[in-house]
Amino acid sequence: MRLQKTLLVLAPFSLLLIVKPWLPGWAVTPPKSCLAGCADIDGMIPFVDWVNAAITFLRKYEFFGAFTFRDITRGMSDVIKSMLDFTEGLLHEGFPDLGIGTIPWIALVGLAAIYGWYLRGWKLALLGGGCFFYLALFSKRGIWELSMQTLSAIAVSAPIAGLIGILVGILAAKRKTAERIIWPILNVLQSLPHFSYLIIVAIFFGVGSKAGVIATIIFAFPPMARLTMVGLQNIRPEVLEAGIMSGCTRRQMLFKVELPSARNELMLGVNQIIMQCLAMVVIASFIGQSGLGHDLLTRLQRLAIGQALEVGIAVVFIAIALDRFSQAIAHKEPIHAPEGPLWKRRPFLTAAAGFVAAVLVLSFVTPYIAKFPEHLTISTSTFWDGIVDSITLHFYAPLAVFRDAFLVYFLIPVKSAITWIPWIAVIALVASLGWRLGGWKLALTVCAFVFFIAASGYWIRAMITVYMVLVSLLICAAFGIPIGIWASRRDWSTRLMQNLCDTFQTFPSFIYLLPVVMLFQINDVSAIFAIIIYASIPIVRYTIFGLRNVPQEIIEAATTSGCTRNQVLWKVRMPMAFPEIILGLNQTLMFGLFMVMIAGFIGTVDLSQEIFRALTFNDGGKGLVIGLCVSFIGLTADRLLVAWSDRQKREYGLA
Fold first, then answer.
1. Which segments of 521-573 does DSSP mark as H helices, in order?
2. What is the reported pTM?
3. Residue 25 forms part of a structural domain
């Protein structure tokens, strides 16, 4: 019965593939514009011209004859710049007019260690202090100064993104109409490639570090808004009833009851914001943000792999330290301070203040306290260059054979097959799947997404993007699911794999380009393997989660019935975990789509290349439309896979 339904769903798609030789040209490749006066437009509908017209209107139209929208945005960027000047003064440049220098390096190392001890004990203290000490010790090429520029930008963007996210989340949680409007916008923002709105930010806010901070804020606030919304909507009814019975006003209910009850979700949102800000470290450098990202980008462009790896490791250490701190904040329970003097009530605060005071006094005695001795700094770029040279010398031939065979015998045939499919066949496929999994509403939604891509004029590039994501998804599933199965069998292997996933997920995305360029040079194979490394984390994590959370009574019933260990795995645990594995595939696909856009930096011929061109020529309309094409690819897959997961959960009685 299930096979018959599957064949019925695939019937329109299969029929259109069979009759392709007899289809008219417009049904195979999307035609050019069918609108009067738009014959020179590449797509059926001139979305790019419409968006550029809207941008021009906002740039030039004077509201009330006094100011334009661009004037408002430039005023906002000036406010951001003043905040950035303050944080850069503290961490990087000092305040020469006031005769005040930057915070000494040893003060930051010590504060990181004290804060880590306060949050989770000596292990986190050692990790936090060690990460910041690394930045000072390995700063022969200016890594400490670049790191402080990066941290000063994060110090501005993270709080503002958090505040915006909380306010948007509260509005959506309190007003159903606002939720219906905000939720789809958040979906699009989270699936939109970063480079698309970098162009819009550059047009309206200018370029430089202030523009990079604004782009980071736009990128980072959606997860906070989502988690705030979820946290407020999932508060237990008895908690709300207790607040009402206590006579709380609406404001008191929000600040005294609801937000404290949603603390776990809010703290998780803080972690996500910090990680999102670090993910933008390199990307925001495309519009002039200074710091580690700009330096890493420059060295990648010159293919100085050793120096790029040195900078990349510094980014990773910052990411690990901030991630562990934010996770510890999320899990730390509030405690009541003991009675007594300040040093008893706030021992860590007292220790931090005393340490900083001592460092400031000692900085007048020796300059090495204020700045790490330059003659003691170390550079690892020579070491990494030696590894690159060794790989090139000893492994270039076998790697080249593997690269060429993988490209010729697998990637190119798959790419040709996917780009050969008529666009109306793709619409028929997603419509059939949508109708089968979620009814006519889902079918219409995914059809609209695919039609937008076809009508925009970037269909072939979009299919090349789909091919890269699909190949990466299949390879990730081929080794990610077995790894997840192995890791789920024992507690120690589960902890090991989860720690590895946590660590790799903290790495900024551009870091994954370094090893693949080192191994495979610049081509589609490098891009595919960068996507695989980055995107394999969710499928492993979700497989472990699904298998570990199968109800114990079901496993015991299967064991009592005489099932062997393998039978319990394949007949009980895997079917019950299958909905979670589907969600893992969904997240893997979204991670892959994100990484495809990053991989365009090393020369892939897909939508990412078009976005880079739009960024080069400051074409806001083209960048936004292509970004929406990427977003709609992700949203189409997301809607179908989530609907499939929900359907499986209902079949197994899990929902």
1. 524-548, 552-560, 565-567
2. 0.84
3. no
